[in-house]
């Protein structure tokens, strides 16, 4: 990953309290896992940003290196990597995701 790609990823993560690197966008997810993440965050009714990794191969590969996580989507809350679809579903079902997002938005 080039330093420019690393900086672009860091900027996206650090300027958005809730950031999703996904296939597609919030209006048109391009895979079921990305759709799961969007649906969960929509249910929580919280602001979030998305980045379509299908539109940028450098970011698509770079985010996997940046987080040391091999799959997409990837969710960051308050600058911290949280995980992908399965982890978000689990956190949502336990009620922990709502708490994490509320803390992030309050900071």
Compact description:
The chain is α+β, with helices and mostly antiparallel strands and about 110 residues long.
What does this protein look like?
- The chain has a four-stranded mixed sheet. Strands 2-3 form a two-stranded antiparallel sheet.
- The chain has helices at residues 3-15, 32-44, 57-67, 85-94, 96-106, and strands at 18-22, 24-25, 28-29, 49-52, 74-77, 80-83.
- The N and C termini lie far apart (30 Å).
- Helices cover 54% and strands 20% of the residues.
- It has 107 residues and is of the alpha+beta class.
- Helix 1 crosses helix 3 and helix 2 (32-44) packs parallel to helix 4.
- The protein is globular, with a radius of gyration of 13 Å.
Fold blueprint:
Layout: H1 3-15, E1 18-22, E2 24-25, E3 28-29, H2 32-44, E4 49-52, H3 57-67, E5 74-77, E6 80-83, H4 85-94, H5 96-106
Parallel strand pairs: 1-4
Antiparallel strand pairs: 1-5, 2-3, 5-6
Helix pairs in contact: 1-3, 2-4
The residue fraction in helices comes out at: 40-55%
Proportion of beta-strand residues: 15-25%
* CATH class categorisation: Alpha Beta
Q: So, the CATH homologous superfamily?
A: Glutaredoxin
Largest sheet, spatial ordering of strands: 4-1-5-6
Provide the structure class.
alpha+beta
Rg from Cα: 13 Å
Shape: globular
Distance between the termini: 30 Å
User: How many structural domains can be distinguished in the coordinates?
Assistant: 1
> H/E series, N to C?
HEEEHEHEEHH
